[in-house]
């Protein structure tokens, strides 16, 4: 389940830059955005600069360099957006915009199934600051939770066809999870009313299942997380519904490949920033931009924790390295068109601002000495 890149109402956007000759680098830390784009609101902009070397630099020269970098970035952004519009206009016909269907009441969970702590409150939990590491027993429990999540996701994907409703998918997922003695992690998380996230077409993530029927040519991301024996297993996949056109197929295929490229760089001692670098390098070959608003996260006994996994290179110099025995998710979202987003009044359903389609894939991985074990496979 994707986590917003801002973690609290008091989070702020910090930009730090270092100047050495005409070379400029920047670091963008996770931030809050406007209240209509995510459950977390409020941001402040702070700027600090440090000068390397023995030469001093006047404030006026700093302004010149800042403008030069800003102008270049703006030109590149405008070019990408123009190319995206051209692709959208010439190759993709948008379906009718999503509309909220009827949302049925939340489904019951047997009393004897252990529930995560957040179920007793409607408060949205803060991102836990601790990285999650596991001993041998914990790793086996993580494997069991993740394998169950993978099996449920596979079964849910087999249901995808024209005319089925996302509410029917939710019912099936819910039943599979409780039949296994597990709890559907999204249910009751910050008040989320369903057992699975179903994000159709322009919905980036956190779609709430409802009475809308899937249409021929839709794409749908199904995001499954289960809580089994005290551990969360988290995974998602974008499925094709019926006869999907080629550009959507390419979006889905490249998004999955980007996730796989990000996983491939993971191992004990590797830098977290390599993930976003590798993902963006592959995406650029096909002209896609990753959504920066949502990130991967640590997962285990706690649903969402550090480390924050950025899927893009911008501001990805926070540092930190992976450690053997650690678990976290990688879950990039790509769009055709704008990567800006809006959120419905339910405070969950997040759509692309321009109505372009979005695709996402997610795995939970375990860091090993020589690589990464994908836990959410069956």
Automatic annotation (TrEMBL):
Cofactor(s) listed in the protein's UniProt record: Co(2+); Zn(2+); Mn(2+); Fe(2+)
InterPro entries registered for this protein in UniProt: Creatinase/aminopeptidase-like (IPR036005), Pept_M24 (IPR000994), Pept_M24_MAP (IPR001714), Pept_M24A_MAP1 (IPR002467)
Cofactor binding, note field: Binds 2 divalent metal cations per subunit. Has a high-affinity and a low affinity metal-binding site. The true nature of the physiological cofactor is under debate. The enzyme is active with cobalt, zinc, manganese or divalent iron ions. Most likely, methionine aminopeptidases function as mononuclear Fe(2+)-metalloproteases under physiological conditions, and the catalytically relevant metal-binding site has been assigned to the histidine-containing high-affinity site.
One CC-aspect GO term: chloroplast
Residue intervals of the Peptidase M24 domain: 140-368
Region (Disordered): 96-117
Swiss-Prot/TrEMBL GO biological process terms: proteolysis
Residues making up the signal peptide according to the UniProt record: none
Binding site for a divalent metal cation 1: 223, 234, 362
CDD domains: MetAP1
Binding site for a divalent metal cation 2: 234, 297, 331, 362
Annotated EC: 3.4.11.18
Protein task: Cotranslationally removes the N-terminal methionine from nascent proteins. The N-terminal methionine is often cleaved when the second residue in the primary sequence is small and uncharged (Met-Ala-, Cys, Gly, Pro, Ser, Thr, or Val).
Record-linked NCBIfam families: met_pdase_I (TIGR00500)
Designated name of the protein: Methionine aminopeptidase
The species this protein was found in: Linum tenue
């Amino acid at each position: 389940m994707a986590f917003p890149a801002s973690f609290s109402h008091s989070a702020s956007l910090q930009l730090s830059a270092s100047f050495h000759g005409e070379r400029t680098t920047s670091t963008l830390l996770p931030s809050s955005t406007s209240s209509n784009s995510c459950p977390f609101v409020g941001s402040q902009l702070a700027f600090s600069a440090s000068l390397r070397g023995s030469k001093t630099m006047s404030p006026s020269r700093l302004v010149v360099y800042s403008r030069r970098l800003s102008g270049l970035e703006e030109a590149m952004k405008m070019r990408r957006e123009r190319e995206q519009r051209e692709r959208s206009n010439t190759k993709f016909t948008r379906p009718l915009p999503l509309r909220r269907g009827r949302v049925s009441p939340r489904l019951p969970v047997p009393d004897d199934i252990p529930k995560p702590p957040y179920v007793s409150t409607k408060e949205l939990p803060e991102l836990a600051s601790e990285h999650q590491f596991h001993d041998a027993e914990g790793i086996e429990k993580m494997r069991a939770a993740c394998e169950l999540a993978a099996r449920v996701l596979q079964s849910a994907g087999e249901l995808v066809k024209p005319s089925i409703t996302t509410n029917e998918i939710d019912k099936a997922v819910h039943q599979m999870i409780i039949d296994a003695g597990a709890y559907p992690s999204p249910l009751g998380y910050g008040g989320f009313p369903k057992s699975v996230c179903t994000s159709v077409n322009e919905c980036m993530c956190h779609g709430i299942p409802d009475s809308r029927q899937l249409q021929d040519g839709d794409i749908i991301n199904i995001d499954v997380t289960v809580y089994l024996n005290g551990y969360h297993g988290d995974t998602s996949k974008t499925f094709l519904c019926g006869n999907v056109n080629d550009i959507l197929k390419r979006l889905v295929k490249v998004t999955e490949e980007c996730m796989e490229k990000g996983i491939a760089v993971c191992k004990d001692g590797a830098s977290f920033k390599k993930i976003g670098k590798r993902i963006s390098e592959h995406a650029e070959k096909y002209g896609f931009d990753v959504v920066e608003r949502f990130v991967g996260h640590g997962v285990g006994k706690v649903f969402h924790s550090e480390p924050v996994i950025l899927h893009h290179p911008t501001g990805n110099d926070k540092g930190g390295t992976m450690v053997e025995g650690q678990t976290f998710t990688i879950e990039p979202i790509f769009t055709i068109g704008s990567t800006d987003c809006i959120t419905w009044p339910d405070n969950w359903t997040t759509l692309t601002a321009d109505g372009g389609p979005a695709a996402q894939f997610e795995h939970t991985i375990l860091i090993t000495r020589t690589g990464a074990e994908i836990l959410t496979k069956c």
